[in-house]
Design goal:
The protein is α+β, with helices and mostly antiparallel strands. The protein is built from eight helices and four strands. The protein folds into two domains: 101 residues, Peroxidase, domain 1 (Orthogonal Bundle), CATH 1.10.520.20; 73 residues, Glutaredoxin, CATH 3.40.30.
């Protein structure tokens, strides 16, 4: 909960600055690159969360790592987070930033969980059906979880569609137990 409270003003500030500088698309791309880096690099994640490294060192490291790869606004934002010792909230800030972008675009985020990775054709079908259901443009966030055994679980706003094999088996077991 604290992460969200800290993340909101920073995410809003980044969004407003991106709009003001007409750089929203570039900042979104930078955020996507950073998400990939965090997912792929344990060393970078350790850098972000290390309490031993000084804010100045982290700021200089962000500058050195991203100067040629990202917008100056993005780099300055990362440096500010480091100097304010808020870099450990970076993931929460990126999540809130993405939510602000989606809301401004009139887009909903659907979280889809499947037992195995889905194909791009399946992803497109989910987008079409969920967009038709909600009446809004939908962006998918997909994850895999072998524990659902098959099928899918979709969370769209406050609505959950659970068509997983694990849930169906559980419901069947409950019905059989009742007699």
């Amino acid at each position: 909960m604290r992460d969200i409270r800290v993340a909101k003003p920073y995410a809003r500030a980044l969004y407003d600055a991106a709009l003001e500088q007409n750089a929203l698309a570039s900042i979104i791309a930078d955020i996507d690159k950073l998400r990939e880096l965090i997912e792929q690099s344990e060393e970078f994640t350790q850098l972000i969360h290390s309490p031993v490294l000084s804010p100045q060192f982290k700021s200089e490291t962000f500058q050195a790592l991203f100067t040629d790869a990202m917008q100056p606004l993005t780099i300055n934002f990362f440096k500010l987070l480091a100097l304010k010792q808020r870099e450990r909230y970076l993931i929460a800030i990126m999540d809130v930033f993405s939510a602000i972008v989606d809301e401004a675009a009139g887009r909903l985020v659907a979280k889809v969980t499947t037992a195995v990775p889905i194909t791009s054709a399946q992803e497109e079908r989910f987008i079409q059906q969920l967009s038709a259901y909600s009446g809004k443009q939908v962006r998918l966030e997909t994850t895999t979880d072998a524990q659902i055994q098959g099928g899918f679980i979709v969370q769209l706003d406050d609505t959950v569609f659970d068509a997983s094999v694990a849930s169906q088996l559980q419901r069947l077991e409950q019905q059989l137990a009742k007699g």
